[in-house]
Amino acid sequence: MSDLVFPIVFPLLAAAAILLLRRGAAILALAGVALSLAASLRLLGATASGDSAPLVLPGLPDLPLRLTAEPLTALFSVLVAAVATCVLIYSVGYMKRESGLPRFFALMSLFVAAMQALVLAGDWILVLVAWELIGLCSYLLIGFWFQRPEAANAASRAFLYTRSADLGLYIAIFILIGAAGTSQIAATLNVDGGTAVAAGLLLLLAAMGKSAQVPLQDWLMRAMAGPTPVSALLHSATLVAAGAILLIRVAPLLAPNVLLAIGLVGGITTVAAGLIALAERDLKRLLAASTASQYGLMLIAVGAGVPLAALLHLLAHAAIKSGLFLATGEFQHARGGTALRCLRGVGRDRRWTFLGFALAAMALVGAPPLSGFFSKDAVIAAALSAPSTAWLAPLALAGTLLTGAYLARALRMLWLEREEGESESRPVAGARWMGVGVWALVIPAVFLGLTFGPIEALLGLPGPEAHGTTAMLFGLLAAVVGLALGWLVPAPRLLGPFHPWAQSGLVIAGGLTFWIGRPAMAIAYGCLRLERGLYATVLSVGRGGLFIARGCGRVERGLYAAVLCTGRASLAVAHLVRVGDERRIDGLIFSLVAGVRGWGDRARSLQSGWIHHSLAISAVVTAVTLIILLSASLSF
């Protein structure tokens, strides 16, 4: 069997095993992602030595499915698996007192499998399948606490906004396949002319939805209603990264005017989201706005024609932002909330966690010699070397300055002395697991920059032109000024009259909630009322006709008879439909449920507690698995 399938198969099998066994969910999920990480590292080693080959699988007629093994896709696969492993280690402690653990860990495993399929896909059909799966999993994970109204609303909003932008991906894929005559991604990147421009703009629209770029950034802040491990995974190397990964992979397709549009979208987003983060009063929402801002910097690098700089910042940001979110989750458990006022002084109580948070924050600001210093220098150098440097460079520097300002503000609040009457810290259940997860991401956030040289050599992508010293000086100056302003000047004074607007999310004319969300929900409720009205009308036809006809003559009675027959016929049809629904469809569903419960009872009986019984079952399952793997490898 090809090595390409293992990064996908292991977390997928873990998800299936969790749903089937309903026991040991955390251990199964950890085993799945750890094996996926090992398989991804092996795949990266194979691609570095040139030993790996693409895998072609059956698909649509003349449009087979492909998994591709290139240094870029293998590197993305390692990134996804590494971050997911650290987040799931943390989740063991964070979710210790929560219910629904099998559902949580199964969804996380399925999400990792779908993301691995997305980054390893070599054709557009498989990209669409994986894109849909990560959208579904993100909806279910954001709404994990669906009984809370804010979580259900946040999941629906994320689904609605990203699905609207996903239309761009569908149309772009149709255009590319029609122009190239194949669904293979590498072949479609050779399209040029008007087709390339249209496809590039549509792919930008899809990336704006997933990566929360202006004006589609609002859903990302509201997605904080989900569990913190979900926020850490989605905001670092998976869901939100999907848009940037898409643009990095299709960089050879992008025409100059499309690159300018991408750079401007990213530049506007990095400033707008930075202002929103500076005005935020909740630490998780601040980090969410920061995520949109940092992906804006990546789009600036792509728009400048240097996707390598975007890739380096994506790698650094994945470790940095995951570490920040995980540390925030521990603060949340210590104080019972994530509002900055509630977290005042928590860093003095949780010093090791605060140290990890501070290191990750300084890496994101771009302090040397941390990883963000190297990646942000690459982005600023790319902006300085771009044909549209007059637009992109000031926006990149402004985004860097704002990064320093809002993170300095957060650090100051976390370290200030707790005032009398404010909430005290309490013991955190599962703190050891959470600490391991935090530091497993903080360490690469500090040292990952040392690997950028070998990564550049492995990928062979062109870097920015010679602006290294200038970019470093400008970047350091912007970071230091931002840190000073954020630490010394309160946000209301710093933003002035823009502060209330920034707190509202820079909403213009009601925002997308007014123009998209409310109309969509109104249409849905209208359809529901129409259906209920039609049903009530059918029921009332026969009953109301008799009263009207009593005072009429023969003609009227004849009309009444016709109406009565129609009403009775309608009621008869409705009765048949109702009987079919209740006795046939519902009966079938209830039978399936009873069958599943029966199989569950039988499966539960296998867990007898006898060691020899368990060993026998393990031996049988191992034998069957080996037979399947052997058969599959022989077929390939």
Radius of gyration: 28 Å
Order of helices and strands: HHEEHHHHHHHHHHHHHHHHHHHHHHHH
Number of strands: 2
Poorly predicted regions:
none
Q: What do these coordinates show?
A:
The protein has 636 residues and is mainly alpha-helical. Helix content is 76%, strand content 2%. The protein is built from 26 helices and two strands. A two-stranded antiparallel ribbon has the order 1-2. The longest helix has 52 residues, at 554-605.
Salient structural properties:
26 helices; mainly alpha; globular
Offer a concise description of the structure:
The chain contains 26 helices and 2 strands.
What's the topology here?
Elements lengths: L5 H16 L3 H24 L6 E6 L2 E5 L3 H24 L6 H20 L3 H19 L6 H32 L4 H4 L5 H17 L7 H5 L5 H9 L4 H9 L6 H24 L3 H21 L3 H29 L10 H4 L1 H15 L5 H15 L3 H27 L15 H17 L4 H8 L8 H21 L2 H5 L3 H5 L7 H39 L4 H52 L5 H25 L1
Antiparallel strand pairs: 1-2
